[in-house]
Amino acid sequence: MSARYQLSGTTAVEISAGIESGIRTGALSPGAALPPVRALAADLGVSPATVARAYQELRQRGLLVTAGRHGTRVRPRPPVAARRSALRPPSLPGARDLSRGEPDRRLLPPLGPHLAALAAGTGPSVSYSEAGVLPELAEAARARLDADGVPAEELTITGGALDGIERLLGAHLRPGDAVAVEDPGWANLLDLVAALGLRPIGVPVDDEGPMVAGVAAALAAGARALVVTSRAQNPTGSAVSAERAEALRTLLDGRRDLLLVEDDHAAELARVPLHPLAGATASWAFLRSVSKPFGPDLRLAVLVGDETTVARVAGRTRVGAGWVSTVLQRLVLALWSDPAVDELVRRAAQSYEQRRDGLLTALAEHGLRGHGRSGINVWLPVPDETSAVTALRDAGWAVAPGALYRIAAAPAVRVTVSSLHTDDLAPLAAALAHAANPTPPPGFPT
After folding, report:
1. Strand pairing of 72-74 and 64-66?
2. How does strand 412-416 pair with strand 377-381?
3. 372/101 Cα distance (integer angstroms)
4. What SS3 string covers the chain?
5. In angstroms, how far is CA 332 from the centroid of its own chain?
6. Which of 396, 399, 401, 397 is nearest to 386 (CA)?
7. What gap in Å lies between CA 339 and CA 317, rounded to an integer?
8. Which of 77, 126, 232, 372 can bridge 130 by disulfide, Cβ–Cβ 3.0-4.6 Å?
9. Which residue has the higher pLDDT, 71 or 227?
10. In Å, how far are 20, 65, 141, 359 from 32, measured between CA atoms?
11. How confident is the model at residue 443 (pLDDT cuts 50, 70, 90)?
């Protein structure tokens, strides 16, 4: 904890408000350690129970995390808006940033021509009573999902995949309920689960998706929801195989006490077949976002599922945000309808596959086995994340530490391949090999 920021307060409410203020202003940075309960209680002249209540309230809201023997810390990305100066990442002069997990902007379809066409052809703005899911968008979405074997009779639209997942979990679960999530898994989802006051249960992942034994263990531990990434899993690149899908469907068959959520965020960028679990449980939902193939600023995802689940999400949207902009819906429909855009997305998917497979091959030449069956990331196990990230930074490469994505999984680093060039692969693999197997310092002379 920053020596310049002193905690204060005589009640649990005052103490928690002071900690939240420190997080908001940046005085308490992500990962900052807080004093032990008894130490802070002694400093403030209050009972340990008062401090414990303050910490518990902030943990339930997802601002703090208990890290075992490492004590209580600020979450890496707490759900509270910070000042822009606190959000600015540290500068890395001259370093190649492979940590962000974003698509290559050069490979995204240009939006200008379609926006211009919309501007020329759009009539009067829709009214509140007319807004909702455009029938023509729903029809096009159903056709795309039907082609992948996903039943899409019941359909609605959300403001992106994570927005859809938040509405699904909020409609089915209550604070304290357990959610089975992939481990390692999507950092944003782990943060969302914490912010909703839900309890994550990590499910181990291999190249073929969530492991059946791990899902069974999570169900036995009382998980009320299971979130699965269909393809291009972040951070490992795993994709649910046909065999894994069949085994999971057998395990989940007919369960009425579990919400199954599938996230197919990569969609058209995935170069592996989709093997959906849709319909394996009584309550289920399948989400497909447009952000990765067409642009992160296009905040739209198609959500299909059983009638009750879709109705809950659509109803909650109606009393909150209301609807996803019909202007945005028309733009997405125009992109889906353009053969030239389809070709650009196909080329982007092929380019990502070549970069990803090229890096995996280069790592194998150094005796390292990375993971990246699909998507834009490579996951590389390392003995120590801190030393690996530091060594790579010193070599001019910025990667993401695996701790952002792990619950109980082994240490690793995530490398985003989307901005790599062919000439980058050999030097990057060499730097990763050195970071994963650093040369020990020389011993004392005898």
Report:
1. antiparallel
2. antiparallel
3. 13
4. CCCCCCCCCCCHHHHHHHHHHHHHHCCCCCCCECCCHHHHHHHHCCCHHHHHHHHHHHHHCCCEEECHHHCEEECCCCCCCCCHHHHCCCCCCCCEECCCCCCCHHHCCCCHHHHHHHHHHCCCCCCCCCCCCCHHHHHHHHHHHHCCCCCCCCEEEECCHHHHHHHHHHHHCCCCCEEEEEECCCHHHHHHHHHCCCEEEEEEEECCEECHHHHHHHHHCCEEEEEEECCCCCCCCCCCCHHHHHHHHHHHCCCCCCEEEEECCCHHHCCCCCCCCCCCCCEEEEEEECHHHHCCCCCCEEEEECHHHHHHHHHHHHHCCCCCCHHHHHHHHHHHCCHHHHHHHHHHHHHHHHHHHHHHHHHHCCCCCCECCCCCEEEEECCCHHHHHHHHHHCCEECEEHHHCCCCCCCEEEEECCCCCHHHHHHHHHHHHHHHCCCCCCCCCC
5. 22
6. 401
7. 32
8. 126
9. 227
10. 12, 10, 44, 34
11. low
**Section 87-115 average pLDDT:** 82
pLDDT in tens, 308-340: 999 999 998 888 888 899 999 999 999 999 999
pLDDT tens per residue across span 186-243 = 999 998 998 888 999 999 999 999 999 999 999 999 999 999 999 999 999 999 999 9
Cβ neighbors of 59 (< 8 A, separation 6 or more) are: 65, 66, 72, 194
Segment 242-272, tens digit of pLDDT:
999 999 999 999 899 999 999 999 999 998 9
Mean predicted lDDT score pLDDT of the chain: 91
Distance CA 340, CA 140 (A): 17
Cα 4 → chain centroid: 33
Q: What is the spatial distance between Cα 402 and Cα 382, in angstroms, rounded to a whole number?
A: 9
Tokens of 192: 């969302």
Q: pTM for the whole thing? A: 0.85
